[in-house]
Design goal:
The chain is mainly beta. The protein has one domain (28-122): Cupredoxins -  blue copper proteins (Immunoglobulin-like), CATH 2.60.40.420. It is built from one helix and ten strands; from the N terminus they run αββββββββββ. It has one helix at 2-19; strands at residues 31-33, 39-45, 48-50, 53-56, 61-68, 77-80, 85-88, 95-100, 106-111, 117-122. The strands form two sheets. Strands 1-4-10-9-6-7 form a six-stranded mixed sheet, with no helix packed on it. Strands 3-2-5-8 form a four-stranded mixed sheet, with no helix packed on it. The longest helix has 18 residues, at 2-19. The relative contact order is 0.19. The structure holds copper (II) ion. Copper (II) ion binds next to loops.
Length: 123
């Protein structure tokens, strides 16, 4: 059952990627580029964030959609220290976080214990 769902999910993900040539072909890229207004799925597993680096134009608004896919992780929360924002990440439930890409540099996010690191960067 889980394997079937995984296959369907992978098939859909691959189909979507084919329509978005700017995305690298890797199955779980470390870094992605997103256009302004994009919804960017971010998986949280036992190894951290996938992708961990999200690039977009300065000032663009993005919706990061975090989904924690395992309990074997300390990623039960995600926080944006510079925004003083913290969200719980229930297992397998998408959690949307709206962010604005900074004019320069990066907007960092981490797990609740500051072990997993991710960032939103100017493209
Ligand atoms: Cu942690």
């Amino acid at each position: 059952m889980n394997k079937t769902l995984l296959c369907i999910t992978l098939a859909l993900a691959l189909a979507c990627r084919r329509e978005a040539p700017s995305q690298p072909p890797a199955q779980r890229p470390l870094e992605v580029s997103a256009p302004a207004g994009a919804r960017v799925p971010v998986e949280v597993d036992g190894e951290g964030y996938h992708p961990a680096r999200i690039k977009a134009p300065a000032g663009a608004r993005l919706t990061l959609v975090f989904r924690r896919t395992t309990d074997e992780t300390c990623g039960q929360q995600v926080q944006f220290p510079s925004l003083n924002v913290r969200h719980d990440l229930p297992l397998n439930q998408p959690v949307e976080v709206a962010v604005t890409v900074p004019a320069s540099g990066s907007l960092g996010f981490t797990c609740g214990m500051n072990m997993y690191q991710g960032s939103v960067l100017v493209q």
